[in-house]
Design a protein that fits this description.
alpha/beta, 2 domains, 9-stranded mixed β-sheet, globular, 13 helices
Length: about 475
């Protein structure tokens, strides 16, 4: 009897501790916890920033939603108190910046500005690939036109859902000197329509007191509405809103860091080279986080498989005791993928396997790219140039253009046209008009589009060129 009571007590204690851990891990994922580990913001070390070390400015961003409504959200811009003139900017998309984190402190100490959404609410996860994408593009557009920001030295850094947004911003926009995406959602079809559904099914079909995927179960319902914006499994919008389908549009150095043990955003959508076939034994034997091979269109392909091999560097890293540390590796290519091998997926994991700690130091990479500026980091990649021309014509699938509401708001065709002209004019500051003209015409000529589409591209480019 004593042994039975002891077993019951130990079981209850384990359950409470595990539940406590799961809840706080979930809060971190949602951006509501005491530390936001998924926006690349590590634990603070050493003395905190002194009082008055940072100036804070809240900016209201108005934009047009997909349903043609005018909405607004706030961003917050932090500047080191002692810095004057135009300074570099780190934009953290989707999640709010954590002012007490180590990364935030290092950004400020290096004399850089930091910006992010002002307040994060969990409902924004459901808007990730829709109105949230429009808002974050609008935020970056506004920041580029904000006094005191060096347009030649802007970087985007995010993780998980924020990593998704960072990649989308870097694929859709010119004008970012660098991008860092940690555990980014790269394939919305696989991640939300396939993987999350499979995890939910395991939880739903388990015994009452057996909840195999607690963290997954708590966040799944927040992202589930994303599926509702697609007509069916063959909707081409799945590809259009998946960063994995557009890696050739990356035009500035981008680093992706991903763990093999990630149960929330399986690494297979980044690369299939280092995935584990099964799991660590905490899930059904046949459970795997690998991608399928028969999804519509290119959705069965990883980001690596669709990237330009001449602009790709891929390496796997293994750390003793799964403690990640050191300077973040990067290459001279436009895309660097760092895979951290911390074992197979686990029911008790999140963006890494249980027990994995630490993160890469991103400061050396950012310093190097800011020193090079856009003049040396940005390349006129054909896929990027065509995406810009599509948006100029109001034909972007990722950022639908609106006419007749308010031509001064982001989301209107008028602002999209201004945005494209501004970005290409910024590129021209570092290069000749002849160079960008040749790159644009080469991109149009080599595209696989039919002749009428190419003619529309050329007409749009001639209109833009005359305004540069």
């Amino acid at each position: 009897m004593k042994n039975l009571k002891k077993a019951i007590i130990y079981t209850l204690l384990f359950t409470l501790v595990f539940a406590y851990s799961a809840v706080y891990t979930t809060l971190d994922i949602l951006g509501l916890g005491g530390k936001n580990v998924f926006t690349l913001q590590g634990d603070s070390k050493g003395a905190p920033l002194g009082e008055g070390a940072v100036k804070k400015q809240v900016i209201n961003i108005k934009y047009i939603t997909g349903s043609r409504k005018i909405d607004s959200r706030e961003i917050v811009l932090y500047r080191p108190a002692g810095e004057h003139g135009d300074i570099p900017l780190i934009y953290i998309p989707h999640y709010a910046a954590e002012e007490k984190s180590e990364d935030f402190k290092l950004y400020i100490q290096n004399g850089w500005a930091v910006a992010s959404p002002h307040r994060f609410e969990s409902k924004y996860n459901a808007q990730l690939a829709g109105d949230g994408l429009v808002f974050n593009n609008a935020a970056l557009y506004t920041l580029r036109h904000t006094a005191g920001i060096d347009k030649q030295r802007i970087a985007v850094a995010g993780s998980s859902a924020g990593g998704y947004t960072a990649l989308m911003l870097s694929e859709l926009q010119m004008g970012a000197a660098a991008c860092i995406a940690n555990a980014p959602i790269a394939n919305v079809y696989f991640n939300f329509h396939v993987h999350f559904a499979k995890c939910d099914s395991i939880n739903a079909n388990s015994a009452f007191f057996d909840f195999p995927l607690p963290v997954q179960g708590m966040i799944s319902k927040l992202f589930r509405p994303i599926n509702d914006q697609f007509k069916n499994e063959n909707d081409p919008l799945w590809e259009a809103l998946s960063p994995a389908s557009m890696p050739r549009a990356l035009s500035s150095p981008t680093v992706i860091n991903h763990n093999t043990g990630d149960i929330l955003v399986p690494a297979d959508q980044i690369t299939k080279r280092y995935s584990y076939k099964g799991n660590d034994g905490t899930l059904p034997k046949d459970f795997s986080a690998e991608m399928g091979r028969r999804y519509p269109g290119t959705l069965s392909l990883s980001l690596e498989e669709q990237a330009d091999p001449d602009e790709l560097s891929l390496r796997k890293y293994r750390f003793a005791l799964n403690r990640v540390f050191g300077a973040m590796p990067y290459s001279g290519k436009l895309l660097t993928i760092n895979i951290i091998d911390d074992g197979p997926v686990s029911a008790k994991g999140s963006h890494s396997a249980p027990g994995t700690t630490g993160n890469f130091n991103t400061i050396p990479f950012l310093k190097h790219m800011f020193a090079r500026t856009l003049k040396q980091t940005e390349k006129p990649m054909p896929e990027k140039l065509l995406l810009l021309l599509e948006r100029y014509q109001g034909k972007s699938r990722q950022l639908p253009a609106h006419i007749g509401l308010d031509d001064a708001l982001y989301g209107s065709l008028a602002v999209y046209k201004k945005e494209i002209i501004d970005q290409l004019a910024l590129y021209r500051e570092n290069h000749s008009l002849g160079e960008i003209d040749a790159a644009m015409k080469a991109a149009i000529g080599k595209s696989q589009n039919e002749s009428r589409v190419k003619a529309a591209y050329l007409a749009a480019w001639e209109e833009v060129k005359n305004k540069l």
